Amino acid sequence: MGREAPPDAPRVIDDLDADSRDWLHRLKSPGPTGADAVDALFDLLHRAALHECGRRRGTLPATVVAELDDLARQAADDAVAAVLRKLPEYRGGSRFTTWAYKFVVFELSTTLRREAWRGRTITMADASWDRVVDAAPFDPEAEAQRRELIAAIQRVVNTSLTTRQRDVLVAVAIMHVPVDVIAERRNSSRGAIYKVLHDAREKLRRALDAEGWRLDLGERRH
Fold it and tell me: pLDDT of 187-196, one tens digit each?
């Protein structure tokens, strides 16, 4: 796979299990031993990625399902790189394989979310504002208040937020578009998008609070 094991050994707790200790020893070894360990790690994480793909297959668009084998390999490759980069931080809080699996699940989840939105347009017209406020057990008075809150949210979003704040808030909070997808399409970073999202939520919360709404509970203070 063309990678070298990291030169610095992690600090390991005394009661680390034998299998985890063996993984660490081989991954930090120079020469063929380290290279073989990296290949073994890839095989392990590739199998984990394929298993996770199979588990999620029924929830994915057909276009993504057709690419699952390649996406699993890509996720495993990225996860190996992440594991090797983070290896000095491993402290043995869990088995090494359990710790490593988290990386491939994260990489695969990120990839699948991104691929599921590839080619799809993100427009305000597709937003379902009913998602903003959780529906309560039906009660005419409660439903009327819920509709009033939704209208207040729409008004504030359309009149008080900047265009960038509005687009990001609607995409993430209402349409559930992954942040990394928004960042990619805007040639921005995840951190920058999170900052815009945070500012938009704070501005929305302050504006609704000024009108007497308590957004977290979806009810109005009187």
Answer: 899 899 999 9
> Do 5 and 34 meet the contact criterion of CB atoms below 8 Å apart?
yes
Enter the DSSP assignment of 88: G
What lies within 8 Å, CB to CB, of 49 at 6+ separation is 71, 72, 73, 75, 76, 79, 104, 107, 108
Beta bridge partners of 220: 213
For 213, the 3-state DSSP assignment is strand
pLDDT in tens, 73-104: 999 999 999 999 999 999 888 999 999 999 99
DSSP per position, 118-182: TT----GGG--GGGGSPPPSP-HHHHHHHHHHHHHHHHHHHHHS-HHHHHHHIIIIIS---HHHH
The CATH number of domain 18-117 is 1.10.1740: yes
pTM score, whole prediction: 0.60
The model's pLDDT over 158-171, given as tens digits with 9 standing for 90+, comes to 889 999 999 898 88
Q: Classify domain 124-220 at the CATH class level.
A: mainly alpha
Partnered with residue 213 across adjacent β-strands are 220
- Domains of the chain, residue spans: 18-117, 124-220
Cβ proximity of 172 and 182 under 8 Å: yes
**More confident site: 121 or 93:** 93
